[in-house]
Amino acid sequence: MTSSGTLPLETDKRLAKCPKLRVLVVGKSGAGKSSLINHVFGIKQQVTVVSHNAPGICNIEDEITSPDNRHLVLHDSMGFEPGQDANLKKAINFLRARSAENVAIQDQVHVVWLCIKIPHAGGRVLETGDEEFIQFALDKNVPLIVVFTQFDKLQTRIEQELTEAEMELSDCEAIVAQRSEKKFVEICDIPLRKSQPLLPYVRTSVGICMDEGALKSLVHTTRDKVENRVWFVTTVAQRRSPRDKVDGSIEYVIGIPGYWRGLASTTKLFGSTLENCLRTIHFEITASWNFNDPDEFLASEAFKQRIYSLIQFLVPEDKEIRSWFDDVDRFQTLIGIGTTITAAAGPVLVAIGLSKMFVEWIASRYVQTPEALRCLMAYICDLTLIMDHLFLETLDLPPPRHLTQAHIDSAVESYQKSSAWKVHNELRMYANSMTFAQIVQSNRAEEKVQEIIDLYCSK
């Protein structure tokens, strides 16, 4: 997928340095590693790996990849059984080789997930091998997160211990939740804190009672622990937290590239058409969300034109709108908004189709005007927020969650009905409040885009 725009492709530039997040997953068989990975990264269990090992035996050197998520590579290490040092030595040697200073960033281990089944009362949380491996990783400054798995099974055990009287109570579920929390602190949190007081951990349930909040917490913790240079690919690879996707889009697509600072002079966009600018922005944003889109619906001209259909009403001044659209009076009457069309957006607006004036306008050479500013700001806001709606549309689907046209249709319609008109109103009032040069030179356009996206995205 390429862009024909003239703006530098910041997403390509950043992913060229490190195109995949490399995760070392450590844990005994049955710890729930596969289920955890499938849900966080949106891949199915059938991963691609060249290995001749017997079933249940993994080779830590194998690169495990999936066509469902091209920004992820996994390494699987078996757990460290008491009295058996072979797996521990392999894991330490692997981590030593993958954390050396002369190893290219894309070949380094970026984060380790140490998966531990929540033990029964009296069981050890960390085996001796776990403690030795953790210390080695910390000494090598490799981010390591303990992932306590199968919290749902602990809850089931607690539920089974309820008396008949307790099971009849209306707050039975609250009792189970409270006791499960207390037991977890007793058998996991306190022992871990005594051994490693600063080590981050997350507890998860990825069975029938999948804990959505826990999976998002794991994504947040992983993002916060990895080095800045792989922060972006971490955000791109994960498919569990829409908030992290929005943050990544804002931070690395909207903010850091400095689109708006570049607009202060004609150098950056000299000779470029607005359409090419929009195509580049479209590529940047959709690539950063990393949907499983084998049919490339998001890159299609049809999808781009749907975004055009939304933003075209924001481009002309109020007094010029009628001259841009042949049937605008009919649609104004239909949606009942009186003299202006800018206060509404929805399926009925898209039904009007693309205006010939708009098509000709975006095909013209870029110039510094309030209309151009509104167009660029609206495209970024609309597309990012539609991506947010689309993420929510597919979040509850089982991996690998392939995008369909129906998902996109539903996301676009949801955005149109919920907040598109509010977003456009804010953008029009903002762009009309001062001159183009004042807005761009103060970086306020960039800040306003971030403010609007933060306000209307999912929390």
Automatic annotation (TrEMBL):
GO molecular function: GTP binding
SUPFAM superfamilies: P-loop containing nucleoside triphosphate hydrolases
Coiled-coil annotated spans: none
Transmembrane segments: none
Domain G: 22-149
Name of protein: G domain-containing protein
Species of the source: Favolaschia claudopus
